[in-house]
Amino acid sequence: MNSLTIFEQAIRSLPDDRTLRRDELWTDDFLLQQENELTVYYSPIGEYVNTEAKVVIIGITPGFEQMRIAFEEATDALHHGASLEGTARIVKYAASFAGTMRRNLVQMLDTLELPALLGIETTASLFHQHQELLHPTSLLKQPVFYREKNYSGHQPKINRSPLLRHYAEEHFVAEINQLQKPALLIPLGRVVETQVRGLIQDGRIEQHQLLSNFPHPSGANGHRKKQFEENQAYLMKQLIQHFAE
C-alpha cells in the first residue's frame, strides 16, 4: 500500500468526470524508471495482493488500457471516500485484463470448466462476486512500454534487461511468495510460463501448481484459438488433477 500513499495526491488531482488521456498519465509524476527505449510508469493496479487466492492469473504487464482504467477507478474510489486499501482492491479487479483480453480469458476458462471445479457459475464472477478466489497479477506489475507501445515480452527479452529482470525476479517473486496455500498459477502465454517455470525450478517461488500451455488471451495473438483447441484436453486434465489433490 506504500506506493498508493505516495501517489495518492497525484491521483486525486486527476479529472474524474471523463476518460483519462495518455498525456495525463505518461507524466513525470507517474514515471518510475527508464532503460534505453523502455519506460515504466506507476499504476494503482498492482497494489492489492489476495493472499488467500486459489487461482492466480499472470499476465506480462498491464497495457495502457488497463493502466487508464486503473487510474479512473482509483480516482473515482478516492473521490467517493474509499480507503486506500479499499481503493487498491477495487482497482485490482476492475482493471486487470480489462477489455477484449478478459472476454477471451473468461471464454477459455469457462470452456475448460474451471467454474465447476471452483463451485461457481462463470469465470467472469472471479472479477466480481467471487474475488476471494482470484489474484490477478503480472510478471511486471507496473505498466511497461517499449518505444511508447505496450511491452509484449519479446523486445527486449526480460532476461536481457536488468530493469525487467528486477521486476520479474524481485517484485513478482516477493508477491507470489505472500500466497498462503498451494495455488493454481495460470501464466498467460509462453513468455510468462517460461519465466514462472524458471523461478519455480530455481526455488525462488514456492511450489504451486502451474497450468502449462495456456495461450495468451490477447486479441493480437492470432494463434490463440488454434493453440487452445490443440491443448484443450491437456489443459482440462491438469485442472482436474489440481482440484482433485
Instruction: Give helix and strand order, one letter per element, not per position.
Output: HHEEEHHHHEEEHEHEH
* Tally of distinct domains: 1
CATH class reads Alpha Beta
Count, helices: 9
Named CATH topology? Uracil-DNA Glycosylase, subunit E
Q: Name the average pLDDT.
A: 94
SSE class:
alpha/beta
Please report the total strand number as a whole number: 8
Indicate the proportion of strand residues: 5-15%
Residue ranges: pLDDT <50 for 5 or more in a row? none
In CATH, the architecture is: 3-Layer(aba) Sandwich
Largest beta sheet: strand ordering: 1-2-5-6
Task: Give the fraction of residues assigned to helices.
Answer: 40-55%
For the record, give the distance between the C-alpha atoms at the N and C termini, rounded to a whole number. 34 Å
In words, what does this structure look like?
By secondary structure, this protein is an alpha/beta fold. The protein has one domain (2-244): Uracil-DNA Glycosylase, subunit E, CATH 3.40.470. It has 9 helices and 8 strands. Helix 3 runs antiparallel to helix 4. The chain is globular and about 50 Å long.
